[in-house]
Design goal:
9% of the residues lie in helices and 35% in strands. The chain is mostly beta strands. The chain has one domain. It is elongated and about 40 Å long. The structure holds zinc ion (ZN).
Length: 66
């Protein structure tokens, strides 16, 4: 779960889709990023690590969930 600096809960609003050329195994270890939105202050953070806890700075395209 993600927590905003305001203390609100960040909900995932979009998750990156792994590249189509990857094999099933490669997709399993592929580190996706996601966009999250704070439910308290409404701030949106892009390209947050989704599959592990490492910090990513690279901006990747995400696919909206809604
Ligand atoms: Zn917030």
């Amino acid at each position: 779960m993600f927590i905003c600096e305001c203390g609100g809960v960040l909900l995932v609003i979009g998750v990156e889709t792994p590249p189509k050329h990857l094999s099933k195994q490669e997709k399993l270890i592929y580190k996706r990023v996601c966009d999250v939105e704070c439910q308290k202050c409404g701030k949106i953070k892009y390209s947050q690590p989704y599959d592990n806890g490492t910090i990513l700075n690279e901006v990747k395209k995400t696919k909206p969930l809604l």
